[in-house]
Design brief:
Keywords: Signal. One of its GO terms (cellular component) is cell envelope. It is found in: Cell envelope. This is Amino acid ABC transporter. With 249 residues, the protein is of the alpha/beta class. The chain has 2 domains: 139 residues, Periplasmic binding protein-like II (D-Maltodextrin-Binding Protein, domain 2, 3-Layer(aba) Sandwich); 89 residues, 3-Layer(aba) Sandwich (D-Maltodextrin-Binding Protein, domain 2). A 6-stranded mixed sheet has the order 1-6-2-7-14-8. A 5-stranded mixed sheet has the order 11-10-12-9-13, with helices on both faces. A hairpin with a 3-residue loop joins strand 3 and strand 4. Helix 3 packs across helix 9 and helix 3 runs antiparallel to helix 10.
Length: 249
Amino acid sequence: MKHVIRFASACAMVVAFASNAQADKLTIATEGAYPPFNYVDSDNKLHGFDVDITEEVCKRMGADCTIVAQDWDGIIAGLMAKKYDAIVASMIVNEERKKKIAFTNHYYRTPLSIAVPKDSDITDAQSDFAGKTVGAQSAATQSIYAEEHYKKADLKLYPTLDEANSELENERVDVVIADKFPLLEWVNKTGKDCCKIIGDVDGTMADASIAVRKEDNALRERFNKALDEIVADGTYKKISGKYFDFDIY
């Protein structure tokens, strides 16, 4: 994907951090296909909660940041290959990812949720969905969970959540499992006539954090400081309020 947006902090902040070349110019990856967190709008630019958070923390860090869209399947590999300096893409922290990369403190938390067609006879989000077809985004927390817990189901994986949701809308899968907030966004908009959420999956509440390379501890701490600042002074709440009428922090 080639969608890119650029922004720069105020000159005074750039001067203040001019001695730290690592943080002066940063490239940040997001997915661009995960509304309302990150998506490409009709103006062909990246938007969403992740993008707004990135812009604000970069400003607090005095960094000149370029945000680029990267397909989800290769997003960690791209970070490790130094194609970009960090990932702000609603990435959930888990033990497998922590073996490869490092994470900041969380900037929101989410459980997994289950969506089904409105006329479905499936009512229990804690089911193992035996004999059912379950859709999920590949290489994501939801697919990892599904592979571990839905061994009696037919699991179908898709490059993006939008594709999994489209399969549900067209009745080619019986269930979609996904992070709650993007699934809720879809059910309330595109999927409002076809589908519903039946509940959250117990025990799946997890942190979404900024990812960096393991060796970049100084950068990780700069992100943490900036995140703490925007939470403390109310900027985080203001950004969040553009997308959610409830607390996701």
